[in-house]
Amino acid sequence: MRQIRSFVRRKGRISPRRTNLLQSSPYLIQIDSDASCPLQPQQWDTLFGWQANNHVVELGFGDGASLYTMAKAAPTTQFIGIEVYQTGAAKLLEAIQETQLNNIRLYIGDGSEFLKDHIPAQSVDRVQLFFPDPWHKKRHHKRRLIQAAFLGCLQDKLKPGGQLHLATDWADYANHAETVVAQFGHFVTHQLSERPDYRPVTKYEKRGLRLGHAIYDRIFELVSTKPCFHLSKMGEACG
Prior knowledge:
Layout: H1 16-24, H2 44-48, E1 54-59, H3 65-73, E2 77-83, H4 86-99, E3 104-108, H5 111-118, E4 124-130, H6 148-157, E5 158-168, H7 171-184, E6 187-192, H8 203-210, E7 216-222
Parallel strand pairs: 1-2, 1-4, 2-3, 4-5
Antiparallel strand pairs: 5-7, 6-7
Helix pairs in contact: 1-4
């Protein structure tokens, strides 16, 4: 059965300099695609070359401006940013390399698969999902990332008390997320009335505000790490 994706790959023009960064930057996580070589979970301290107590993963960082700002403001926190849009990834890599910001690493590819296969269990303090594609048409709701299988993966990867932070300018997406989380259990929902200080305003947020959209920040906090037995539509155990 064809796997349902929560994203669409976009193409953009990339300069030769940025193309070279996408091929050789030390801040880019490279995964061996050889099927004969089992993929091993990335160990945070080994990946960054130094130890930290706080670890954050952002899924879909867009052009990377907000992720760069967060990483620069929290130098003792290790950040992994995941994006399929190569133009945005190259732009962020350029900024990281120019300032030698050593608490951020990037991966280009499917964020849910990377989270499942290459992040150690109970190692993440916060997973960030800022202004994802809302897939607003009803027939496309199945493409929304926040589903039971994804929450099962988070339950395995987050530390006890770890958080999923969703920000969106679509009320229906916020309601969808709250409903799925409530049905899944193991998480408690916090509805934030204001944007938390650590989250910068993003490009998509500014566009939503220009259109008159309200902004919804939701934090889903893990309160149980017991194994889950929810099944995805593809028949695979979540996590």
